[in-house]
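Entry:
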Amino acid sequence: MQELIPNRKIIHVDMDAFYASVEQMDNPLLRGKPIAVGGSENRGVVAAASYEARKFGVRSAISGVMAKKNCPELIFVKPRFDRYKEISNKIQKIFREYTDLVEPLSLDEAYLDVTINKKGNPSATVLAQEIRQRIFNEVGLTASAGISVNKFVAKIASDYNKPNGQKTVNPDDVISFLEELPIRKFHGVGKVTTEKMYQLGIFTGLELKNKSLEFLEKHFGKSGNFYYHVVRGIHNSEVKSDRITKSVAAEHTFDVNLSSEIFMIEKLELIAAALEKRLKRYNVAGKTVTLKIKYSDFSQQTRSKTLPYFISDKALIIEVVKELLYQERMKDSVRLLGISLSNLNTEEKKFVVVQLKFDF
């Protein structure tokens, strides 16, 4: 018996090269040029790249050294997260004029459930077009969108006609869309999993769909159940307007590697202060403190401790961090330090979703 696909109307809006586009908008001298936000030609990691830079293989998460090697004309720009947050808030305000069911994933993307919307417009496709046009007119940036019956398909669809485009996958087309989709384009299937699926003879959604639940769970564990259902268009995750924060973190990459714990403590004091500020902003506290250490060879280590009580104060956080820092000797000089607080005092709210049937 075939399971029914929930008939919701979900829009996934994804800003085009958001950080880089903001920098090009604010500085006309950068327009049309290959730029990287974050990192430098000597160290650091790229946070975002303009489309002009992406043509040369420059992308987020690669080292600044590699980015400059790929694109000798690359211009590095320091990130301005306060500015990105300011722009993001303007975009979020536009979203909420259409629906209260907005789930931000980051500063530059969000899900909108427009099944029932404030404009009374039955067409999610038309609403997506209108939202993208308003972002361009009122903010000055372009956005892409995916529209479909659930978050999974909408997320994939938003990447289809980038930049400055959109794609609608209607209810009757979901199965064929997923069957024809290359497995590497499935949201949630990373590089390692893609290679594993290739080894198992799975290159498309159809080949994934032909595998039994038992087969997928045997080879992919709990994720196998997820793959089995999403390729059949079944993904019942609601758009949650109040996403529950699971952890709050702050970190910093240093211009000069740190080789002494004394210098690290000085930096960790500053990071803990930034974390305390964020915890107060979210009005949360947590029990689990995690120290993140990235060494000069880019290897990474985390050390955690869970307390029997909630904390949010900088002094208490740094006390635990010092204990974690001195647990063992550093194996190399350190390029990045971070502190996160998890196991927070938040409770997930219950959501009731009414599923209706209608035209897209």
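Confidence is low (pLDDT under 50) at residues 1-5, 347-359.
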